[in-house]
Design brief:
By secondary structure, the chain is mainly beta. Helix content is 4%, strand content 40%. The longest helix has 6 residues. It is elongated. This is C2 domain-containing protein. It holds the Pfam family C2. InterPro entries: C2_dom, C2_domain_sf, C2B_MCTP_PRT_plant, C2C_MCTP_PRT_plant, QUIRKY-like.
Length: 475
Amino acid sequence: MNPLSAPNHQEDYKLKDTKPQLGERWPHGGIRGGGGWINSERATSTYDLVEQMFYLYVRVEKARDLPPNPVTGNLDPYVEVKVGNYKGKTWHFEKKTNPEWKQVFAYSKDKIQSSVVEVFVREKEMVTRDEYVGKVVFDMNEVPTRVPPDSPLAPQWYRLEDRRGNKVKGEVMLAVWMGTQADEAFPEAWHSDAASVHGEGVFNIRSKVYVSPKLWYLRVNVIEAQDVEPHDRSQLPQAFVKAQVGNQILKSKLCPTRTTNPLWNEDLIFVAAEPFEEQLALTVENKVTPAKDEIMGRIILPLTIFERRLDHRLVHSKWFNLEKFGFGALEGDKRHELKFSSRIHLRVCLEGAYHVLDESTMYISDQRPTARQLWKQPIGILEVGILSAQGLTPMKTKDGRGTTDAYCVAKYGLKWVRTRTIIDSFNPKWNEQYTWEVYDPCTVITLGVFDNCHLGGSEKPGSGTGSKVDSRIGR
């Protein structure tokens, strides 16, 4: 074969440098190759893994110089934002002519069937629903579109008009724009999709990002005790130690010999979360019979006094005086007790050089130690677009029919996210995007879909909202 006419297969197998347009569309954010850091602006500006959803945003900042009600002489103002059939309301203020709301409303563009946006300033005590203090009307065709990371639209003062379009006393400060779910206002906005939700329920349906508490191992090395005395002084005690941190309770083995100076040298390991608000409660107890234990002394220690260890250096042990317990000692006898006391010898430290197992190893999403200074550099960024769910089952009954108010939760490492709740849908669409730093490829991200039980409807009539727990649909 003529070498000149042969195809150049070697070119096909050479390394090629490609530059896909993932996350590089905005000049302010982006990933730096190899360094493993993420610009915080990037998280709010790129929504390239999900379907873009457009929303009409109306930010209601404040009002000034509102005229008082001619009947009462006062004004309890609130704002109503009306787009077609959808109405969003701010809370109302008592007797205030210069109120500040700072609330955002989002109306899904797909569902808008009106060519105008109407913003009404209303008085809570109005006799009829048609009355209002004044209104501002925007033509939908003139609403600007904002694309992050463009600066947010500055709100402006608008003079109120009456029913005939004449200017009246009072102004309201507003910003109106068209944007997507990448907008910073998206998580905090009241959504027209949830128009039936009122009051505290609005906070239950918003998307949120949570950071799990930092967990440490609390290692309690119970070494020995001195001069522990049982109630019945004629018999030597068979002693053990019971330790409690929060709801965790651990016991040492029984000291093999009956003695007032028992020796255990045993480790009890607890998990403690920052900030350390819990205490270590220790009791030295006597096994009187197989069914009966008696307390011979106790001590309660705040976790904040213990050393934090990030390596294997030796932690010094310490003697602690035990309080006598159950001998009917009065308050006045406390000073006398301190002259002679039973003692316990402990070596206690908070360990941050290990990973605290807070989930089963099958589903482990993080293998880093607690101490941040021991973390390796991240190997990259995991980006997840939570798009939608299909064919969900009815989780409760509302007005005699099955319904589901679904949200999705994703957990990886210390960060877990929750999408907004989509009301009354078996095929919800969220289209929200989140990022995590990844330190180990051999880890797992967990996603779950839940039904929000705080929005009314119940399988069990008369069950109180206080005891409700969101039902898991699947994971």
